[in-house]
Design brief:
Length: 491
């Protein structure tokens, strides 16, 4: 009976995954929000032409897959990987130089807070409202103290994280699908739109990548399965936990890890599934205590001024903003916190949440969530261009980038790439026969991100954290042959 239950759960995960991906691909065929993210309108032909181009690429991949694999397999892996990583670094440095921005929004608050703390020992009041960003603040303080607390230092640190993440994508793909699949994965990751254009933007979107890929690299053995060594599981759980401290949505990886352990472990070792949750609780508790002891955060002040979870849930139902950031909701919550106890504020939020959901009705909620999905999942730029247009040091460079001719090519590149990667997830069916725990983890994480951002405040850039799994699964789906290592079994 126990075996049947777990087998049923696996099948259920597969069904949900393909339903979610089919929905996302279907919506992406007709909708693209890349232009809208920077206040532009896409030409009438844009969606149709880019979809046709994406289909042509897919046809080319399947038609010439074996010649491509055979050619790449002849190239020494160190030469290929080294060349792409050097190319990635040069590309990121070029983008950072041309499109550097004056730090604003949360990016600016964090960079300025780190510099202020290093220079004077003072902690910004920003964290009394948004303590969720305090872990990145700590990282930036450490980096700033080791080097200098200048913007260029933090931009280079961000590029370093992206480079390490691209290498780890190669390492993981090699373990799961063979050397050639790994070589293809690193090529895709180096050319991936958000990894290029988020280089000048130092925030949790790109920094979070390492907190997904490092534990996965630790966990996966040479056969592409999760190791059952408790020390490896503990180490991976610790890194996943710190990832959740960095960015709350990364709790999805902790949950996906726990469920994957429950499904994959044998016998009494299934109890390991609880390890990630215990470690998360301990790490979060110790981290918070340390912040209070070091006077980085004031516990009593936090109770009075930090936004409760209910704020993000009620903002996620803001009809006018389609569940995205709402300045009016922020001002409302700040006003409530100034006048009432935090628990009362949460109660008011939950009443408002019920009201917002009830006012929409069944059909209205369906249409609202459909629009929310469009804004979250159909932007191939992942909101990176929006961030680059905010107070650029050289505005003329950004305008040349997004003007009529170059802008259409840029948006087309982003959309075609986004479509190809999403459509690749529809072709992972052959991978299911291999029973690789890595594939199950990827599916659970993508499902989790889909449903999480229906409930939570959303934005297309929030998906950057899960993009390594999309790249890895799609590369495997397109270029893994009959479960054998490509570099060894390519016809």
């Amino acid at each position: 009976m126990r075996f049947d239950i777990f087998h049923f759960l696996e099948k259920f995960i597969y069904v949900i995954f393909f339903c979610v991906i089919a929905l996302l691909v279907g919506i992406n065929i007709f909708v693209s929000k890349g232009h809208q993210s920077i206040g532009q309108f896409s030409p009438n032909y844009f969606e149709a032409v880019t979809f046709i181009i994406a289909l042509m690429f897919l046809a080319g991949i399947f038609r010439f897959r074996h010649p491509i694999l055979k050619t790449i397999a002849k190239i020494p892996a160190p030469l290929w990987v080294g060349g792409f990583l050097i190319g990635s670094l040069l590309l990121q440095l070029t983008i950072s130089k041309l499109f550097v921005v004056h730090p604003t929004w949360d990016f600016g608050s964090l960079v300025n807070a780190a510099k202020k703390f290093i220079d004077s020992g003072e902690v910004s009041n920003y964290f009394s409202i948004y303590p969720n960003n305090v872990f990145l603040f700590c990282i930036l303080v450490i980096v700033g103290k080791i080097f200098t607390p200048d913007l260029i230092t933090y931009m280079l640190f961000n590029s370093f994280i992206i480079l390490i993440s691209q290498y780890l994508i190669y390492r993981i793909a090699t373990k799961v699908a063979g050397k050639t699949a790994g070589m293809i994965s690193i090529a895709v990751s180096v050319l991936f739109f958000p990894y290029i254009f988020f280089a000048p933007i130092v925030y949790t979107d790109t920094i979070s990548l390492i907190f997904l890929l490092l534990p996965l690299n630790l966990l996966i053995d040479k056969n592409g399965r999760f190791k059952n060594n408790i020390y490896i599981i503990l180490a991976a759980s610790v890194v996943f936990a710190f990832g959740m401290l960095l960015k709350g949505s990364l709790i999805i990886f902790v949950i996906a890890f726990g469920i994957t352990l429950l499904l994959s472990m044998k016998g009494w070792k299934k109890v390991y599934f609880i390890v990630p949750f215990i470690v998360l609780f301990l790490i979060k508790t110790l981290f918070n205590v340390s912040l209070y002891q070091l006077d980085i955060l004031d516990k009593e002040q936090q109770k009075k001024t930090s936004f409760p979870v209910s704020h993000w849930l009620v903002m996620a139902q803001n009809k006018d903003r389609l569940g995205k950031f709402s300045e009016s909701d922020v001002k409302w919550t700040l006003k409530l916190l100034a006048e009432r106890h935090r628990s009362e504020v949460s109660e008011i939020h939950y009443e408002e949440l019920k009201q917002r959901i009830g006012d929409k009705g069944v059909y209205g909620n369906l249409m609202f969530n459909l629009e929310k999905i469009k804004h979250t999942w159909t932007d191939g730029t992942y909101y990176s261009l929006n961030k680059l247009r905010r107070h650029p040091l050289e505005p003329e460079n950004f305008m040349r980038l997004v003007d009529y001719k170059s802008g259409e090519l840029l948006q087309g590149f982003a959309r075609v790439q986004h479509l190809i990667l999403l459509m690749g997830l529809l072709f992972v069916v052959p991978l299911l026969k291999e029973k690789k725990t890595f594939v199950t983890f990827c599916m659970l994480a993508i499902i989790g991100y889909f449903f999480f951002f229906l409930l939570w405040e959303t934005r297309s850039r929030y998906l950057v954290s899960v993009t390594p799994l999309i790249i890895l699964l799609s590369s495997m789906a397109y270029f893994r042959v009959k479960g054998d290592s490509i570099d060894e079994k390519t016809p």
